[in-house]
Fold these 4 entries.
Entry 1:
Amino acid sequence: MKKKQSKKKILNKKKNNLSEKTAFANLDKKSNPVTTPKQSSSGIPKYVADRMARRIFFSAGIPTIMGMSVFVVSYIIVTRNIAEIPPSSTIAISALFFLLGLAGLSFGILSASWDKEPGSFFGIENIPMNIQRAKAAFKPATQNFDENI
């Protein structure tokens, strides 16, 4: 058996349906497209990122691979009775290679030249300038604002 609904509920349902339809229909008509002014990109250019990746691969990747290979070489030497290597020295040598890889990661990022043409082989002259860029990037936005624009 169907229960009778009051007239108020029926009218409210019709009003809700109509108001939803008209609200979504008029949504596109009333909205004005907002144009934003072009902002200069403050990201890292692609050619600089590629340079950083190459430097990181050589200065951090090779020591990290050597740090992992210390365990394999140590295992082979100990299992074939070539020499007796204490586990603490294996861990210490591996840790040194991993720390060298960590330093190489920082060096690879900081030594990359931001010019279009690549810099020197080691890029040591770029490190102070890139440190200044990194410091400026971490300043609050109010300090980076230039009023002479």
Entry 2:
Amino acid sequence: MKLTFPFSRKRFSELSEQEILALAISSEEDDARIYRNWAEYLRADYAATAAVFDGMAAEEDGHRRRLLDGYRARFGETVPVVRREHVAGYYTRRPAWMMQNLSLDTIRDEARVMERDAAEFYARAAQASSDASTRKLLGDLAAAERGHEERATELADAHLTAEAREDEEAVAHREFVLTWVQPGLAGLMDGSVSTLAPIFATAFATQDTGTTFLVGLAASLGAGISMGFTEAASDDGVVSGRGSPIKRGIASGVMTAIGGLGHALPYLIPHFWTATIIACIVVFVELWVIAWIQNRWMQTPFWRAALQVVVGGGLVFATGVLIGSG
């Protein structure tokens, strides 16, 4: 029976010193490429942070050269192909295509995790080495990786001036608003307002809380699914800069469903007028929360946001009550 690839991986404890050095060389090369990819990805909007990652990539290149020199001194010019995926339990890195789903802060956190993983690897490798010069090299690299957080801070101080940080924070804020707040707000408005008429029309027409809840549940979840798919499919974010369509779809769909469920859930209460009064209070709170979000995140004057949302929502609410009562 032919073994499949996962079962052919070695444990770290089974690697020879030659293989450990080869693994370290390939890992440093991969990490340098990751930092350069991040720098290229961030350069247009976050030039200062990109310069920090350029500097960290150069540091990894220096580590790779030191490892190659140490390898040549012991084993010659031919370096065996040993990579992370060849070693069971070895730390992994995210693939390049996942980068667009990471925020700036997440990328910075990922870099810190990378340095910590590398430091732990070199510490283990140094303990496994019987050659004094190799042990010293690996120990020095472990210390260097642990010190990379300080190096990153030095690079950040050199490149991330107060003005650069301010510019990057503005860009990050804009991305957050376009990716999460704007579609989420649109969903919350749609879910809160569009479900008012069917829910309250059903409530006043039947005065049956169970039926009203089922109508509200169906309307809320249906609207959430529809809004989520519409938002995700309407714009891939490449040209508009609005970010990941998946994130926007999730924000829009979830908030649409929440907006509708807010005034549907009170109808789980069996007493009609108690449920209706609570649902009306929930509607009032929802509409003012929407107005506050518009003012806080979209810079819409509060009086204008309140007029648009509260008056519009009130008209839809009244429509549902009138139709249901008729």
Entry 3:
Amino acid sequence: MQAMVYRGPYKVRVEEKEMPKIEHPNDAIVRVDLAAICGSDLHLYHGMMPDTRVGHTFGHEFIGEITEVGGSVERVRRGDRVMVPFHISCGSCYFCVRGLFTNCHNVNPNATAIGGIYGYSHSCGGYDGGQAQYVRVPFADVGPTVIPDWLEDEDALMLTDALGTGYFGAQLGDIVEGDTVVVFGAGPVGLFAAKSSWLMGAGRVIVVDHLDYRLEKARTFAQAETLNFVEVDDVVVHLKKLTEGLGADVAIDAVGAEADGNFTQHVTAAKLKLQGGSPVALNWAIDSVRKGGTVSVMGAYGPIFSAVKFGDAMNKGLTLRMNQAPVKRQWPRLFEHIRNGYLKPNEIVTHRIPLEHIAEAYHMFSAKLDGCIKPVIIPNAA
């Protein structure tokens, strides 16, 4: 089969790889119809995440058709068209039974924090991902869900991570009616977090970024106010002025490890790898939220040290909430929002690219070319 293969920082290509096989009776094999490149895939592409090995196939957002199942699989069968959450979960451990599917205790021998994630380095279990023609799906009775007939394919694809994560980010903000919410980052997760904030009762939503085309999308898709941080002297002071000197009630970090806005932080994290990520957006969130407010962290960070303003958070009495999103837990409510017309997830998709051109897709997405917000990959394009 053909698959995207990592060959080192900024180097990916399509190669022939061995077809995945059933390795356990609970496995399924999925022929991938659509995959996507996630902003967090760029952290791998840029060499930011530990133990990203040459030969690994990325891709944790994908949908497709089941072509083979193991002998113990009961809930799905050959021919089912399924959406697969980005997290791999056993469904029965201490954490899974509490809905913490991304912290599953049985799927990642390399960590005590995160569970397994498709295509996200060996620090997340070493599972090959869905930017390929076929992928092995462990615990097939737990993760994959049959795509409802009424749900469009690209909408289902967005549910596998970006939409579920953005919605979860808004949930963790504990938004109450009338709250002012500031979202840092106008990528897919930030756009969905901003849109979801309205569904939870926000009275005002402000999106912060430095790319005009993404801020325009925040205005048209998420109906948010926008702030270009390069156009103000101090983004925190400016946000305080916009909120009567108090600060926002809720701040959502939807940027993560490669945040711009502070040269020293960016270089020590993205270039020198001395931090697990550049915490610029997270520190802005801590500083710009009001005393007693809530900061929700959806941006991905590596496991090593990051220079976060924890003392400021403590002295302001902030609530910090974060996790990799257990997206499958969000699906029932998100299904209803989509059916009722409150959400149209595929409106953020800007590019549809055959797998054979995935190197160009990564370059375009990484360099922010051609107004790229969300690229969809077609592995089995005719």
Entry 4:
Amino acid sequence: MTEHAILPAANRRLFLRQSALGLGGIALGSLLANESRAEALKGVLDKPHHEPKAKRIIYLFMAGGPSQLDLYDHKPLLNEKNGTDLPESVRKGQRLTGMSGNQATLPLAGSIFKFAKHGKSGATVSDLLPNIASMADDLCFVKSCYTEAINHDPAITFFQTGHQIAGRPSFGAWLSYGIGSANENLPAFVVLVSKDRTEQGLYARLWGNGFLPSVHQGVQFRSGKDPVLYLQNPDGVSAEGRRKMLDRLKELHAIQGETEGDPEIAARVAQYEMAYRMQTSVPDVMDFSKEPKDVFDLYGEDAKKPGTFAANCLLARRLAERNVRFIQLYHPGWDHHGGLPGGIRRQAKDIDRACYGLIQDLKRTGMLKDTLVVWGGEFGRTNYSQGKLTADNYGRDHHPRCFTIWFAGGGIKPGITYGSTDDYGYNVAENGVHVHDVQATLLHLLGIDHTKLTYKFQGRYYRLTDVHGELVKPVLA
């Protein structure tokens, strides 16, 4: 079990302050900064718990809950029974949201989109996603995911932090804390949010550090003049002046560190130093000007528009090749309570070519074998229509009982479909995969036993998967 609590870290520094060595403020300031920087680079694990299959994760999070019944999980029975009421024998009294729970009827809604089997694996994908369908044999579909959360905030928080209530460290923060960074000039954990899809609010605590040292929090990169807020020097401040200011600030923090013994002071110094190095590294990684035409052909024309999902996928590849450990893309806009056919067409167009481009780009450069790509949202959608059902229009409510995600690369078995749902697409039929099972499996692929990466906070040991989580062995290569 990995211990890393406040008191042991504080005692080391108090010992140094009180020892006969008599370290001065400048020397101690350097020590504090170097110690925190070394911890952030290396992580608290001296070595992985086992041989990792992946070095990094690119997580494509579809915020809002994409409809598995219109994308991946084909249910002909819903089309046969279109418009008839959801049988109680299927629902079994399970909880509904307040948005559809008071409807007089719950009419089953078959998908208006066409499905086909693809590749040697025979994976079913709808005609909304022709490019993703074309690489079915590179993907591992898990059609039996489930969660307890039925509303967006707790459901997204659950996937990102392992708990429905805010305050826990995010997945990327746990990775940074455990195995550190492989690039001292870029954060271990970078967040990208599609700028043109703002229907659903997202919040920085989803990539926060929780009770872990703040050096492990995610850093959001934006499109536009300032990719990282407050990174560049203000007018009138030179690089030399900034360097001198940071050196003096380090000395002041050293004095404060001697007095208070708080390890968060060292983390703050390390963050300042990282920001200074990022003044050079961030413009370099954000510069697409040297990318050849065939790369943009892979990702599609939207990749030339900064801040789009396609551009963020290309940026994710550039970050991955610079060994950023965890790259989180958020693409909101999947919350289709009404007008689903039109809304999901738009979303599918956003992501289909870009996801294909990312996987193929990683594959052709040899990076897919040690880069784990994950696609999915916080829950699925209901098999019945929320609101009025017509021949060409319907909506779907939140559905936590079953939904689909997919994986590629980094130790995942390609060309398989794992788990299944019942004929109505309402319940898991076999091989259910819980949120904590997903998290345990992702950590395993990076060489981490999810039960052993812990942090002691307020007298209790915490971990990403709380007291749950089982490794999903059948999806491992």
